[in-house]
Amino acid sequence: MKFSRGTDYALHALAYLVSRKDSDEKIPVADLAKKLDVSSTYLSKILARLVKYKYIIANSGAKGGYSLPADWADISVYDVIVAIDGEPTLFEDSFNHGNECKIQRLMMEVETDMVQSLKKRSIKDLI
């Protein structure tokens, strides 16, 4: 599975927030973008999606920025991928032979295993 640049940014942003979880400091998007060496405009769009799914909290104002919710450790890597990219698919069988196609069956099993593995990995595993 190849995930998007957006998912890559989201996972790195979350990893940074997790690494600073013991600090009450809110991280402004400009600081986060500088730390990750990415575009703050694009990162803002990614962070907005994470806010929508309640995977991070946006705090406005002079001392505003982003922080983690209380239940942050329950967020799986798969959750983040779906929030940014939608439901991932690894394999599309051009022939659609159904279950009798061993190639399709094998690829679907591998994809299921990968999804289950990503669901077992919390964002706390990113640090």
UniProtKB/TrEMBL annotation:
Q: Do you know which Gene3D superfamilies this protein is assigned to?
A: Winged helix-like DNA-binding domain superfamily/Winged helix DNA-binding domain
Superkingdom in the source lineage? Bacteria
What PROSITE patterns does the database record attribute to this sequence?
A: HTH_RRF2_2 (PS51197)
- Family annotation (InterPro entries): Tscrpt_reg_Rrf2, WH-like_DNA-bd_sf, WH_DNA-bd_sf
* Alphabetized PANTHER family for the sequence: RRF2 FAMILY PROTEIN, WINGED HELIX-TURN-HELIX TRANSCRIPTIONAL REGULATOR, RRF2 FAMILY
What's this protein's name?
Rrf2 family transcriptional regulator
Instruction: Please name the source species.
Output: Jeotgalicoccus nanhaiensis
